[in-house]
Design a protein that fits this description.
This protein folds into 2 domains: 90 residues; 56 residues, no CATH class. The chain is built from 5 helices and no strands.
Length: 170
């Protein structure tokens, strides 16, 4: 016959295991943030000096790149590493941190899907240009030159042309 101490042991072990996993997640997130911030000066110098971007824009693009890199790491971590269970864990701090991390994951997953849809659209436009004999690159398709000059096909005619001069973007 099992005693009360033997029955409580698996629950206590699971609780301790989840607490340790939660602590490891916290350390991993902090390390990922450190790596993202550590890479920021290299990205800034590359944008500012090599790409000749204006100082203000280089700072903004660097900040966005660091945030996006950190978000991609969050998505990868949640995809491949198990999440700790909050069952039988006490403490509001752990629950609040879990809610924050779930919201962060949702936010980056949403923007990743938006970026994926945008890349899919650019790829379709690129393939249409390629099929009709245009001399194009994927990156050239992704720039606004496509929208300014239209989608050029063989024979020099355009499939799509939008005049940005009426909207003030030109």
């Amino acid at each position: 016959m099992a005693t009360a101490d033997e029955a409580a042991t698996p629950v206590l072990a699971a609780r301790e295991e989840n607490r340790v996993l939660s602590d490891q997640w916290r350390a991993l997130r902090r390390s990922a943030t450190f790596v993202a911030i550590l890479s920021a000066p290299a990205a800034f110098i590359w944008l500012w000096k090599s790409q000749n971007m204006a100082l203000g824009w280089a700072i903004v693009v660097t900040a966005v790149a660091v945030f996006a890199f950190r978000g991609i790491l969050d998505l990868l971590f949640r995809r491949f590493i198990p999440q700790p269970s909050l069952f039988a864990l006490e403490g509001d701090e752990v629950r609040e941190e879990d809610v924050l991390n779930r919201r962060r994951h949702w936010f980056w997953r949403f923007w990743f899907r938006v970026a994926l849809a945008f890349a899919g659209f650019i790829t379709i436009v690129f393939l249409v240009q390629l099929i009709f004999g245009g001399d194009v690159t994927w990156w050239g398709t992704a720039t606004f030159d496509v929208f300014r000059n239209g989608i050029r096909c063989a024979g020099g005619f355009r499939l799509v042309k939008y005049d940005f001069s009426t909207t003030g973007f030109a």
